[in-house]
Write a structure and sequence with these properties.
This protein starts with 43 loop residues before the first helix and ends in a 16-residue tail after the last strand. It contains eight helices and eight strands. Helix content is 44%, strand content 16%. It has a five-stranded antiparallel beta sheet. A three-stranded antiparallel beta sheet has the order 4-5-6, covered by helices on one side. It is of the alpha+beta class. Helix 4 runs antiparallel to helix 5 and helix 4 runs antiparallel to helix 7.
Length: 280
């Protein structure tokens, strides 16, 4: 029997020798340290304000904004101007409005008549057997018409006589020019003031003794001889805010007389252009 003693068996299972020892856990933070406050959540309106302000605009956005501003300003000025122009008509009487509409219809009718006349001339040229003779005839007729407009030939026909009496001397050159422009817009074909023929390049100035037309002194009362349709010319002068009312504000009177025969015999010398030549 051997005297060596066997080592005693362990009471429990053996743990591996290389098992690392348990690490010590760090001590808990003191309970007295305050916890971090949760971050406040922004509302939708706050996020919208934060996204819009402060503004972050690019150069292109600034240019577009400037263009939109200029466009809006232009539209506002146009609306204001239109409203101001319609102020005189807004307070007009019913018969005045009817007269204005009638004048507009007459202007449209004159344009239609002119268009038909030009179409007729073209048809005659296209269908005439002797186109050269027809062309010469129409050319001579056109020369006479242009002579009336240029003031180089006398003219007669229906129209009106406008007499402006200005005892206080308040009527200036621009008032007479406004009368001429209104008559032209109403279809006047020939105009004479005293002994001066009014044409396209006629000008009005203030002289030492009163109004001058093309450098010629005109005396009171100012007499306008106008050839055109009397039914168009007279209403054009009497529209609200027109020539007659403007002259009355200057303490002047304007008398309009219709006639079936007005003679315009003041002539302008025929003038040859210095530089312009026909391109035909």
């Amino acid at each position: 029997m051997s005297d060596e003693h066997e080592p005693p068996e362990p009471d429990g299972p053996l743990e591996p020798a290389d098992h690392p020892p348990e690490q010590a856990q760090p001590a808990a933070e003191p309970a007295t340290q305050p916890a971090a406050a949760p971050k406040a959540r922004m509302t939708g309106r706050q996020r919208l304000v934060a996204g819009l302000w402060p503004p972050r605009l690019s150069r292109a956005q600034l240019i577009v904004a400037l263009l939109l501003f200029v466009l809006g300003l232009g539209l506002a000025i146009q609306v204001r101007s239109t409203s101001d122009n319609g102020g005189a008509l807004r307070g007009a009487r019913q018969e005045d409005l009817v007269r204005i509409l009638t004048e507009l219809d007459n202007r449209s009718q004159r344009l239609e008549d002119e268009k038909r006349g030009l179409d007729s001339q073209r048809s005659q040229l296209e269908t005439s057997s002797d186109q050269a003779a027809e062309a010469l005839k129409q050319t001579q007729q056109k020369a006479r018409e242009l002579g009336v407009l240029a003031g180089t030939v006398p003219a007669q026909g229906p129209g009106i006589t406008l007499t402006v009496t200005d005892p206080r001397g308040g009527v200036e050159a621009d008032s007479l020019l406004d009368a001429v422009q209104e008559l032209r817009a109403a279809g006047a074909e020939a105009i004479q003031i005293d002994n001066v023929r009014v044409v396209a390049d006629t000008y009005f100035t203030e002289g030492t003794d009163g109004v001058q037309v093309d450098g010629h002194q005109v005396a009171q009362p100012y007499e306008f001889k106008v050839i055109g349709n009397p039914q168009d010319l007279e209403p054009a002068l009497n529209i609200p805010g027109g020539v007659v009312q403007t002259l009355e504000k200057e303490q002047a009177t304007a008398d309009v007389v219709r006639s079936q025969k007005i003679v315009v015999d003041a002539l302008r010398p025929s003038k040859q252009p210095d530089y312009a030549r026909s391109s035909q």
